[in-house]
Design goal:
The protein is α+β, with helices and mostly antiparallel strands and about 375 residues long. It is built from nine helices and twelve strands. It has two domains: about 180 residues, Ribosomal Protein S5, domain 2, CATH 3.30.230.10; about 160 residues, GHMP kinase, C-terminal domain (Alpha-Beta Plaits, 2-Layer Sandwich), CATH 3.30.70. A hairpin with a 5-residue loop joins strand 3 and strand 4. The protein is globular and about 55 Å long.
């Protein structure tokens, strides 16, 4: 797990550079807000933050994400900043709420994490800003605590009702490892699990379908509300603790389907953990595909582009494939033999062309280090 240690604050005029990765969730979707497990990796795509300390209580931000700059006070509160800048301001606000108010900063942000692709570009931005501010001020912030502060920024400032998985993956990622995240406890626990698919001749292919999505409200918020309704109905503190026969107590067909996903996905993460340890890639791939079917049919968060990607990848030899992230667009992943990456990528692209979908972007990712100082 990546760690953060206290250091002397940056000297006036000194510039430091920090980076925070995006993430891919291997399995365990929509469980991080119901007390369930998830298994993401931090990926080798990052948001980079160059930072310089100020002393006037102002934060100025320039970014390749958008033209122009954003400026706000270190005493910012939710609602002050709109657009992409609200993720930066949210991190400043959440840290201040924890007793860490910056004296001011100049921030220059760049990123190669695709926006709207379901790879947690927002979490990478929040975590990148969080570790940069901690670095220039000399704050000692535990990675899990920083992740939870950045999640609060996304929830309360940016208005997206997400769980903690994205930020935990970005902060705690470990090269060559997946992360088994357990959210039933507070704070959540994060355990690195060796992931040897590269050594075993496999690759994790990401297909950015370019079907854009947003977590700020809408259907994502509706799913979260439905899980809260189910927990209340069943008298459970965490919905992921529901026993298999709990579905018999739910009459509404839609709520029953949502619960069925939570129960079966929780079981799939447990099985996937064992398969990963055993390097049983056939079993792991089958669990990935079963996860997608559940997300499509029971949780109803897939999209035509995601379903087409999974279908084409499986038809052309992928061991398993699934949507990744919150859904309604974004990206899918496929576990494929390394020498078949190009063939599977071409097959997916051809399938999109035949239906006149926008051409997808395909690339391979590997488990990588979490947020850290670059220079």
């Amino acid at each position: 797990m990546s760690g953060m240690t206290a250091a002397e604050p940056l000297a006036e005029g000194e510039i430091g550079v920090w980076a925070a990765p995006g993430r891919v969730n291997l399995i365990g979707e929509h469980l991080d807000y119901v007390g369930g497990p998830a298994m993401p990796i931090a990926i080798d795509l990052h948001t980079t933050v160059k930072a310089r300390r100020r002393t006037d209580g102002r934060v100025r931000v320039w970014s390749s994400i958008s033209d122009g700059s954003v400026e706000f006070g270190a005493d910012t509160t939710p609602g002050d900043v709109k657009g992409w800048g609200r993720y930066v301001a949210g991190a400043v606000w959440s840290l201040a709420e924890s007793g860490r108010t910056t004296r001011g900063a100049d921030l220059v942000i760049s990123s190669d994490v695709p926006l709207g692709a379901g790879l947690s570009s927002s979490a990478a931005l929040e975590c990148g800003v969080g570790v940069a501010l901690a670095g220039i001020e000399g704050w000692d912030v535990d990675p899990v605590e920083m992740a939870l502060l950045c999640q609060r920024a996304e929830n309360a400032y940016a208005g997206a009702p997400t769980g903690s998985m994205d930020q935990l993956a970005s902060m705690c990622g470990s090269e060559g490892h997946a992360l088994l995240i357990e959210t039933a406890s507070l704070p959540p626990t994060v355990k690195p699990v060796p992931a040897h698919w590269v050594e075993d001749g496999l690759a994790l292919l990401v297909v950015d379908t370019r079907a854009k999505h947003s977590h700020a409200g809408g259907e994502y918020g509706k799913r979260r509300a439905q899980t809260e309704e189910l927990a209340t109905l069943l008298g459970l503190e965490t919905l992921a603790s529901a026993p298999p026969d709990a579905v018999l107590k739910v009459e509404d067909p839609e709520l029953k389907a949502r619960l069925r996903h939570v129960i079966t996905e929780t079981q799939r993460v447990r099985s996937a953990t064992r398969a990963l340890a055993a390097r049983d890639w056939t079993q792991f791939g089958q669990l990935m595909t079963a996860s997608h079917v559940s997300l499509r049919d029971d949780f109803a968060v897939s999209a035509p582009e995601l379903d087409l990607t999974v279908e084409a990848a499986l038809e052309h030899g992928a061991l398993g494939a699934r949507m990744t992230g919150g859904g309604f667009g974004g990206s899918a992943i496929a576990l494929v033999e390394a020498d078949r990456v190009e063939a599977v990528s071409a097959a997916v692209t051809d399938a999109f062309t035949r239906i006149d979908f926008k051409a997808p972007r395909t690339f391979v990712v590997a488990p990588s280090q979490g947020a850290h100082r670059v220079s």
